[in-house]
Amino acid sequence: MTNSQLSTFNFQLNMKLPGKIAIMGGGSWATAIAKMCLAQEDSINWYMRRDDRIADFKRLGHNPAYLTGVKFDTKRITFSSNINDVVKESDTLIFVTPSPYLKAHLKKLKTKIKDKFIITAIKGIVPDDNVIVSEYFTKEYGVPPENIAVLAGPCHAEEVALERLSYLTIACPDKDKARIFARRLGSSFIKTSVSDDVAGIEYSSVLKNVYAIAAGICSGLKYGDNFQAVLISNAIQEMNRFLNTVHPLNRNVDDSVYLGDLLVTGYSNFSRNRTFGSMIGKGYSVKSAQIEMEMIAEGYYGTKCIKEINKHHHVNMPILDAVYNILYERISPMIEIKLLTDSFR
Prior knowledge:
This protein has about 350 residues and is of the alpha/beta class. Helices cover about 50% and strands about 10% of the residues. It contains 16 helices and 10 strands. Strands 3-2-1-4-5-8-9-10 form an 8-stranded mixed sheet, with helices on both faces. It has a two-stranded antiparallel ribbon with strand order 6-7. α9 (about 200-220) runs parallel beside α11 (about 255-265). The longest helix has 23 residues, at about 200-220. It is globular and about 55 Å long. The model is unreliable at about 5-10 (pLDDT under 50). It catalyses: sn-glycerol 3-phosphate + NADP(+) = dihydroxyacetone phosphate + NADPH + H(+). Its EC number is 1.1.1.94. Belongs to the NAD-dependent glycerol-3-phosphate dehydrogenase family. This is Glycerol-3-phosphate dehydrogenase.
């Protein structure tokens, strides 16, 4: 394909973006994104794994399990538990499944997705493969990097449900495509910006969950606000060291998509990772905390994945190491955090 033909192709693709949007997942963040999309879109497709959840959604007019206060006009939504049907009928696929379950969902996929526009709102790493989601779609499904975007930022689903002002960043190697989707996602309560730092934002989205677990553990151990401030200050430095090593780029980690997301996840009562960490700090075992929460704390899986990745990079990451030792090596949180405090300034 000549440069002229490629330019024409990209223009045509941009003109139809986002086309028909599909939400791929049924949790709280998926529900919040569906609310955002329907603020501007006439209709969407929505893939949910369970037929009983779909039936209850249609009957009640809201997600029966998550953000139950958000009402939907279900006539504007085409639901399906068949992932292939949803993919065939959609142009833009927004994946919002927890990272540990992504491969299980995609195993059912028989329809090619390399010509679709893929948006990952998954704040995790693909377990076992230890790669970020955008790389996984390129490696396993042949989706060109310029057709993959990441959606991130300091944005709790619960606050979107309440229409509290929130800020999101859409990152894509092709910033024109990011801008097109950003315009369709923005509303009176959602402000958007764009970036081309796909890998950096994905890694930071994983790391902020790890650091939120650390913040929760310290809260459970009764460390106060003074120490939490020092912890988060060291966390953003640790994040910056890691990002500059694995994906060198001229970025500003003070931007809201990095630091802002870290702050809200580390401090907010809506943060499931902080809640999970707090339970660990109070003496719960990992398993008992997971059972009682009944929700996925992505940082638990992200901790192990980043630890494995860092074996190849050798970045100094004392907070990550401390969380890993507590969650996977069963070292006492009290002992591990005390050792961590000695390394801080």
